[in-house]
Structure formats: C-alpha cells, structure tokens
Write a structure and sequence with these properties.
The chain is α+β, with helices and mostly antiparallel strands. It is built from four helices and three strands.
C-alpha cells in the first residue's frame, strides 16, 4: 500500500469532504489487494461521517455517495466499499474500520 495519494484517491477525498461537508473522511486504496498493476486506483473503501446522513437509511447514504462518485465509478474505479455514518454514530462507535477480505480472484474462486 502506498502512502502517497493518487489522483483518483485525492478526487474522491475532495468530493466527499466538500460536497458532503464531511466531519471525517478516510479514503483507503485497496487496489494492492487485487490482481492489478502496481499503483492502480481501482478498489477503494471510504469512511464518511456527515450530518447530511442524518435521517437517511443506510441504502440512501450509499446511493448518495455512489451518485457523488459516479464519474470515478464509470472511469476506472471497479469497487467501492462504503462506511457512512452520522457524526453521532461515529462518536458512539469504536472508530475502527474492519479490514476488507482478501481478494478471491473474481467470479467466486
């Protein structure tokens, strides 16, 4: 995993911070866990904490994030895992994000 942010990672972070006025954002490039070239930006996990999620069920929070990142999802981002919480939920949580499972090679291998 690289410590430097790539262009796609930075774009995702900036959109989530500015459009959702997020209180906390983590953008984790998980591409290294998959069979992609070194430095790829194809698989991401995002952790987003925003007051804009107040009153929204989880599915609507995910839809909102997917809509904000539609361009990235249509242009190279292959997978997006989303953790979307309100500030209250985040404060009451342990603030730990579960690791994603290892890649199984696609097609359920």
């Amino acid at each position: 995993m690289s410590s430097a942010s790539g262009i796609v990672e930075s774009t995702i972070r900036n959109k989530l911070l500015t459009i959702l006025e997020s209180k906390h954002v983590q953008v984790i490039n998980e591409s290294y866990m998959h069979n992609v070239p070194k430095g790829a930006e194809t698989h991401f996990k995002v952790v987003v904490v925003s007051e804009k999620f107040d009153g929204l069920p989880l599915i609507k929070r995910h839809r909102l994030v997917n809509e904000l990142l539609a361009e990235e999802l249509q242009n190279g981002v292959h997978a997006l895992s989303i953790v979307a919480k309100t500030p209250k939920q985040w404060e009451e949580s342990d603030k730990l994000v579960e690791n994603s499972p290892n890649c199984r090679g696609g097609f359920g291998k």
